[in-house]
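Table 4 source record.
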Amino acid sequence: MNIKRKSPNILIRTAGGKETNQELGLGHIYRSLNLAKELKPNKINFLLEDFGGAKKIIEENDFTNIKTIKKNIGLEKDIQITKKYLEEEKINILIVDRYHVRKNYLKKLQKYVKLVVISDLMNIEYTADLVINGFIGLKNHIKINSHNSKCLLGPKYQILDKKFSNKNKIKKENYDLLVSLGGYDGKNSIDVILKYIQPYISEIKTKVIVGPIGKKSKMVNNFERKYSKTLKIVKFTKNMKCEIENAKFGICGGGITSYEFACMNKPFGIICVEKHQLQTAKQWEKKGYAVNFGLSVKSTEIDKFLQNIAKNELPFTIKNRKLVDGKGSLRVAQEILKIR
């Protein structure tokens, strides 16, 4: 006789928002949402440090079981609140996706629940039942770390929106360039990009996505009015895959958007909006997907990139272009549901 397994009750502990000094943005929020959508119809709960605008985005994606906690909460209080939530809501699986994961937090809570950690860059040494790290600098493989935690590593496991797993191409690319620096442009990097684009504005049809919790700067508004024939500026999109598909080239930050451009085989340039994004940008350049503009953009580098776009030429030699297939969220969700 087959015994039907009860659907797990899942808690996602994450953090994000628009406080620029936190190096957070919305990368962890969107990655958590991508995974949450893949884990439906299981019950999904969020325990959230909201640094501005994050809760609203989660709600707009049809998740309502959200408990917010104090920003920059202390370790012991964080453990206390999480443990209480686990008990009250009868949580089976805890997924932690946040910047600077606290290792003592993980050690304490693994006693009470199955634990999944989503990490970045080269960080894999966590105490957990499952560690996920889709960093482009890691080889695609599964290994056991020094804490006996199973680790799913490499861009094969990068958690993108499930839309990216469908590679149906549109018939025509309507824009030469798509600019998106993630959910929030706290350092006004879009202004910098527009200054460089201005000499080519009649030749490069451009679309800029400001971000759902960002505001259009004075310069952005001026450019929008002055160059309305070749420049379109929007605040956000509900379908990033479609936006990338609709452009020939891209400029983005060194976060999750870079994996989205790579997945769609679009050449792109990276402006690192935070220091930790430099490692990702260097890897994309090394692997022949992107040009790394670094933290402080040099005019010669971005000018060359834009000149190539104006001529409809590739700004670099293409190498291996099959590293991100868009199925990472499905692979990760399947592995998570195995650990019950």
